[in-house]
Amino acid sequence: MLEKQKDYFATRYSLIPDSQLDFESIKGISKETKFMNWLTSFEAEKKKELYYRGTNYTLYCKQLSDDCFLMSFAKELQETIGEKTDEGIHDTLINNYKKCTILIQTQNQWMLIEKSSDISNGIESQKNLIANVIFKLLESKNLCFELGIMTEKNNFWTYVSTNKDCLTDIDITLSSPNFLGGIKSVSEFLHKTKDIYNNTSVDIHLKNKEGHLIIDPENDFLQDVVRYTSSGCGKWKIKTTTDKTGCSSSDNPYIIQLPENVAQLKDSDQKHISSALSHMKRIDPECKKE
């Protein structure tokens, strides 16, 4: 019998060090090593807990290989159950944890996140919640943590081409220099702003209320910006005079399917995980060569 499958959306995490040096940074420990140490610390600590904005969160994490981890992200919810009494059924509040599974590959800084409406409504909201919780848990390491949804860069150019005569707004967020150092024009731009302002991201907003924005697909810097954000190191959103909702990088993420109970880590689950990561290597144009 075929196992029920769950959708996972692809994200890339960014690690942004604070300009204020901590003891580990002074010793030459890189941001990547800090994050890896944080992941491997689950083996001894078993779990990490955080009370964030009125809700309890608990994270578990198992190491599967040198660069692969399986995380369980749990959110405490209060639910009402009916209890039978001599006088009738009484409503009683109970605490219940809902969870999603996250497959982490550190070489390419991927996080494949199980879509879960129990965690949050919509993948953008779910992604932001997970990023904020992990960011809070990493604060002691002087690391900023961000997640960006991975999508096909042609989604941007196709929408621009289709709506070239009515473009009103283009919003672009670039995470400060991190994984994609090979995109030199963007990396150099971000390094300059980071050195001056110690910012974690840069927002670019282009607007023409009449819908006459000129977006040149031959512009090298803009090509690099779209490539950078579509690879999960930022985000983009486009609006037109005829489409106020617009199109964004989170509308069409890369989707991977894994078995519903993949966290049981049966032999078959391990094969599915390996297959999912192999698929990511084929579709991610920024994938590091082994």
TrEMBL record:
Top-rank taxon: Bacteria
Protein name: Uncharacterized protein
Native species: Coprococcus comes
